[in-house]
Amino acid sequence: MAGKFEIFEDKSGKFRFRLKAGNGEVIANGEAYETKAGARAGAEAVQRNAAGASIVDAD
User: Fold this and answer.
1) What positions does the domain DUF1508 occupy (predicted)?
2) What CA–CA distance (Å, rounded) separates 1 from 55?
3) Whole-angstrom Cα distance, residue 32 to residue 24?
4) How far apart are the first and last CA of the chain?
5) Residues with Cβ < 8 Å from 37, sequence gap 6 or more?
6) Which regions of the chain are under pLDDT 70?
7) I need a surface site. Which of 11, 22, 31, 39 has the fewest CB within 10 A?
8) Are 15 and 38 in contact (CB under 8 A)?
C-alpha cells in the first residue's frame, strides 16, 4: 500500500498533517496551521517538492 498524508486537528485546535508509510508508521509531521486548508496546502507542498529533494548533512 502506498503512503498517505493525513490532515487532523490537534488538541490545541490547530490543524496539522502527518505522512504515513504504507505500513501505517508515521514518518513525518507538519507544523501547526490555523486552518485545514493551510495544512492541506503544506502537505501538498511537501508532496510536490519531496520527489526531487536531495539528502544533505546539515552540520
Assistant:
1) 10-57
2) 24
3) 21
4) 35
5) none
6) none
7) 11
8) yes
